[in-house]
Structures are given as structure tokens and as C-alpha cells.
Amino acid sequence: MGGAALLPRRPWAGRRVVLGVTGGIAAYKAVQLARDLTQLGALVDVALTRAAGAFVGAITFEAVTGRPVRSDLLAPGYALDHIRLGRDADVVCIAPATADTIARAAAGAASDLITAILLATRAPVLFCPAMNDRMYSHAAVQRNLERLRELGYGVVGPAVGPLAFGEGQGPGRMEEPDAIVQYIGRALEGTTPLSGRRVLVSAGPTREAIDPVRFLSNRSSGRMGYALAQAAWRRGAEVTLVSGPTALEPPVGPALVKVETAEEMKDAVTRELPGRDVLVMAAAVADFRPAHVAPEKLKKESRPGAIALEPAPDVLRSTRAARPAGMVAVGFALETENARANARAKLESKDLDLVVLNDATVPGAGFEVETNQVVLLDRAGGAQELPLLSKDEVADAILDRVVSLLQAR
Ligand SMILES: Cc1cc2nc3c(=O)[nH]c(=O)nc-3n(C[C@H](O)[C@H](O)[C@H](O)COP(=O)(O)O)c2cc1C
């Protein structure tokens, strides 16, 4: 990767997260969660149930968070900790949440430090249930989870996957720490100008078949579009991501529609467009595709001299008439020459509100890298030059502009 090294990002500096850890096998994953939250800058106060202490020691959490860990509600010297922790929290997350703790919380009990904190807080609360699938599907647990939802608490997961003791693949596994971090992020954002807005993002390359095994494609990794979809969801939007083939994990929260060709990308975007407030087309859609797709694999011996190309569907242009009134439309331009003039021409010809210009000749910008350096061109003739940033930071800067455009409507 070219360009300057980026400083580690600490977007949650000073935010207070109370992490309640209860007595299940998945408590070991809470260590990773505590570490990830701390690395994002959050002040993480871990509260353990007595049972949790049988699975993971307080000292481990103290080492990864750099903060004291509390366990005992009735410890002399810490009499008001449950009130202080509950009052000061920006978010409370119970991960893993056992059936037992879920039952106590659903009943409004305050018999241990975690349930007492839950009554003392007015911050958003997330429960991440983790248990055997038969325990999870029991009517009592389901009823208690329903009660938690009625109380306004969020329930994250559980995931479906291998359970402890070789106990099958049912739902019951704690959601992965990466995903929980995103839910905590969304809770920390609270209500934002994007809350409830309907956002459509496209990402990744397309593949245009030459024969059944070969295709034309491009170097898009999808990272920029995935970062945008994730960031918009974190800010409270309802997001659909239409993605060409990528090696990336799906973002947490957005609905994902997978496509392969420019034609499929156009169809999916057209289908998803009605009722959207924002369209961000970060996909690198093929401009050309083979005019004929060979029905069988082309043989080496056939020595095909040239592949005839035809224009692929222009997704931005073809969706132009179908865009809902008032929609904010953002396109991307990747240029290697006359960058600004070409990007401005794209803004006009495709009737966009904002064009994000990547100059592929800038080290650290464009395809296949974690960073990007872009210029945001708007309809009023403005050009906002951003420094070299991580794609997450670029996504936030683009969304800040989208918010201003929405608010100006
Ligand atoms: C080895 C072992 C693993 C356990 N794993 C879980 C679990 O994953 N989920 C759960 O709800 N309970 C699990 N339990 C039961 C809880 O530890 C028990 O209900 C305890 O009272 C929970 O207390 P707490 O909610 O205060 O932490 C497990 C028990 C043992 C012995």
C-alpha cells in the first residue's frame, strides 16, 4: 500500500460502554469484544456475574480494558457502583447473556450487579443471548426475550452455528464480537439525520462472461461501498447493499443482494430503487462486455484472436428516470487522466448530486487498498479535497455531505 501510514482510529474516544458478562461458554469471546471496544477508544467497564468468573477471570478483562472490573454488588467500598455505572453509561451490552440473567432482567430483578445496573441506566441496552439451542428455543426463554424487547432493550442474535459440547448447529451461538461492535456503534450513534432513511448502496466489480469459465472484470474490491453501507446503517439508516462478487464479509445490518453482471446490477438496483432517500453507486460496473458468450470453454487450440465487445448497461443512466423525487444520488468516478473534468461531466450527464472522484494514479487511492484519497464534487461547482483517509473515514465524510444535501431538500 502506498501513502502515509494512518493513525489508529479511535472514533469512540470517551464513550462509556458497560459490558456485562454472564456465565456461559461464550464468555471467552467477550474478552475479544472488550478489547475491540477499547481499541476504538471506548471506556469499557466490565461487570461480571459470579458465574461468569468461573469461565473467564476479572484479571483478563482488566488487562484488555485497562480499567477495574466489578463483580460483587455488595462489596464494601463499592456501594454505589451499580448506580454510577448505570448512570454514566452511553450503552450497556450484556454479552454473553445467559438464560438465567435474561430471566432476572425480564423480571426487573436487581439481585446482582448487572441487573442492578440495568435498572439504574437510561442508556440503550443490548442483550446478546448465548446458550444451547434447546435452551434457547424453550418457551420460557422466548417469553423472557420478548419481555426484554417490550422493555425497549435490543436483542442481538443469536447466530446459527456450531454450539458447545458438539451440540448441533441450532440458533443459540453468541453473535460474533465484530457484529456486536457494529450494533454497539449504532446504539452509540443514537438518533441521527439518517435514522430511518432508506439508503441503497452498490459495491464491487461486475463480471462479464467470455465463456463458462472466463470473464472480464476489474480491480474493485468492494471495500468503499461496503464501508458506506456499514456506516449508513450505523447511523440508523435502513440499508440495502447490491454487491458484485467480492471477498468481503457481508456488512452487519444491511440487507445484501448479490449480483454478478452489469445487467443483474441494473435489474437489482432498479428493483430496490422505489422509496429510497439516498442512492450511492460505488460499484465499478463494467463499461464493456463480450458481444457473444461462448457456450463452451474456448479451447487453447482455437486461438481466439480478439474478443468483440459491446457496451454493458449503464446502471446510473438507466436508473435516472426511476429515481424518486428528492432522492440524493451519489456516483463514483475513477479516472486516470483529466480527472476533474471527466468527473464533472459524469455529474452532469448522470444527473448526480455528488461525485466522489478517485484518482487511480494517487498512491493509496482507488482499488484494492484500505485507504482512499478523494475529491467530492457537487452540483454547485464545489470541490472538497479530502486527505488520505481510511475507507471508513471517507465513508463518514461522504455521508456527512449526503446529510447536508438531504437537509437542503
Ligand atoms: C459448562 C457450563 C456451560 C454453561 N453455558 C451456558 C450457556 O452458554 N448459556 C447459558 O444460558 N447458561 C450456561 N450455563 C449455565 C449458567 O452458568 C447458569 O445458569 C448460571 O446460573 C448463570 O448465571 P449468570 O446468569 O448469573 O451468569 C452453563 C453452565 C455450565 C456448567
What does this structure look like?
The chain has 409 residues and is α/β, with parallel strands linked by helices. The protein has 2 domains: 16-189, Rossmann fold (3-Layer(aba) Sandwich); 198-293 and 308-407, CoaB-like (Rossmann fold). 32% of the residues lie in helices and 21% in strands. It is built from 13 helices and 21 strands. The strands form 6 sheets. The chain has an 8-stranded mixed sheet, sandwiched between helices. Strands 2-1-3-4-5 form a 5-stranded parallel sheet, with helices on both faces. A hairpin with a 4-residue loop joins strand 19 (374-378) and strand 20 (383-385). Helix 1 runs parallel beside helix 2 (58-65), helix 3 packs across helix 5 (113-120) and helix 4 packs across helix 7. The longest helix is centred in the last third of the chain and has 17 residues, at 391-407. It binds flavin mononucleotide (FMN). Flavin mononucleotide binds next to helix 4.
Shape: elongated
Biggest sheet features = 8 strands, mixed
- Order of strands in the sheet with the most strands? 12-11-8-13-16-17-19-20
Overall mean confidence score, pLDDT: 91
Number of domains: 2
The name of the CATH superfamily of the largest domain reads: CoaB-like
Tally of DSSP β-strands: 21
Q: Please name the CATH topology of the largest domain.
A: Rossmann fold
Share of residues in strands: 15-25%
Class by SSE composition:
alpha/beta
Hetero compounds: flavin mononucleotide
Q: What helical percentage do the residues reach?
A: 25-40%
Please mark out the parts with pLDDT under 50 across 5 or more consecutive residues, or reply none. 1-5
Q: What CATH architecture label of the largest domain applies?
A: 3-Layer(aba) Sandwich
